[in-house]
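can u do me a favor
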C-alpha cells in the first residue's frame, strides 16, 4: 500500500513538473515571438528609444533559444517514459523551484502586450505637465540645420540657447506634432506637442510649441498636424515666448517615429 501511494505521488509530481515545464516553454517562445512581432511591425518605437532597439533583438533571440532548448530538454528527458526514473527525479528536483505563481508573474508582460493595443503616448497622457523651455542636452545639429528643418525639440533647444527671443522673429518653421489644448488657452492658440524619450516610455516627457492659428478650436485634441509659419515673440501663459504664427495647418498621419530623442 505504501509503495502504491509512493508511486501515485511520484506520478502526480511528475505530471505537475511536466505541466510547469510546458507552460514555461510556451511563455519563453511566446515572449520571443512577441519581441519579433514588435520589431517587424515597427511597434518597438512605441516603447523604447531607437538607440536601444538592439536590446530587443537580443531579447528575442535569447527567449527563442531558451524556449527551444527547454522544449528539447522536455522531449529528451521524458521520451523514455518510466525507463529513466532516476533522470526524472533529477529533472524534477532541478526545476522544483518553478511554480505556477512564478510563471504567472513572468507571463504578465506577454498577456498585457497581447491584449492591450500598442500605441504611442498622446495628448491624454500629458496631464498638464508640458514643457516649453526646459530642454537639456543641446545638440550641435540643432544650430546648423535650417529653421525649416528643426523639429519641436530642436526649437526648444534653440530657445534655451539664445539670450533674446526676438532674434527668432520672422524665422520660418515647419513642424509636426499632435494638438494639445487647455481651457485656459486663447481661443486661437494650441500647442504642437511631442513626447521625448531618453530610454523608454517610462521616462517620457511632453514638450510643446505654442501655435497661433484662427482655426484652433476646430482641431481635435490629439490630432497629428503639420504646422507651417513664422516665429514671433508673444505672450503665452503669462510669459513672453516665441510663438509659431501659423500660415498653414494640415492634418497628417502619425509619424513612423512618434517620439523625439534627446
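np, heres the sequence
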Amino acid at each position: 500500500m505504501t509503495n502504491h501511494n509512493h508511486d501515485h505521488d511520484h506520478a502526480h509530481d511528475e505530471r505537475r513538473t511536466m505541466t510547469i515545464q510546458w507552460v514555461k516553454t510556451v511563455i519563453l517562445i511566446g515572449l520571443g515571438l512577441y519581441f519579433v512581432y514588435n520589431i517587424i511591425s515597427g511597434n518597438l518605437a512605441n516603447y523604447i528609444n531607437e538607440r536601444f532597439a538592439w536590446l530587443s533583438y537580443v531579447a528575442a533571440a535569447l527567449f527563442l533559444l531558451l524556449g527551444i532548448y527547454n522544449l528539447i530538454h522536455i522531449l529528451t528527458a521524458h521520451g523514455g517514459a518510466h525507463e529513466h526514473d532516476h533522470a526524472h527525479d533529477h529533472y524534477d528536483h532541478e526545476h522544483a523551484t518553478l511554480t505556477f505563481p512564478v510563471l504567472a508573474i513572468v507571463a504578465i508582460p506577454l498577456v498585457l502586450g497581447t491584449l492591450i493595443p500598442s500605441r504611442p503616448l498622446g495628448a491624454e497622457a500629458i496631464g498638464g505637465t508640458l514643457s516649453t523651455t526646459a530642454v537639456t542636452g543641446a545638440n550641435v545639429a540643432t544650430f546648423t540645420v535650417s529653421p525649416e528643418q528643426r523639429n519641436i525639440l530642436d526649437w526648444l533647444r534653440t530657445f534655451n540657447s539664445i539670450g533674446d527671443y526676438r532674434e527668432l522673429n520672422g524665422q520660418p518653421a515647419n513642424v509636426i506634432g499632435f494638438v494639445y489644448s487647455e481651457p485656459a488657452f486663447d481661443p486661437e492658440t494650441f500647442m504642437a506637442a511631442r513626447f521625448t524619450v531618453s530610454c523608454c516610455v517610462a521616462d517620457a516627457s511632453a514638450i510643446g510649441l505654442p501655435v497661433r492659428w484662427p482655426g484652433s478650436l476646430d482641431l481635435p485634441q490629439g490630432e497629428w498636424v503639420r504646422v507651417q509659419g513664422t516665429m514671433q515673440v508673444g505672450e503665452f501663459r503669462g510669459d513672453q515666448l516665441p510663438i509659431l504664427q501659423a500660415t498653414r495647418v494640415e492634418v497628417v498621419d502619425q509619424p513612423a517615429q512618434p517620439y523625439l530623442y534627446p
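The two ends are 71 Å apart (CA to CA). hope that helps!!
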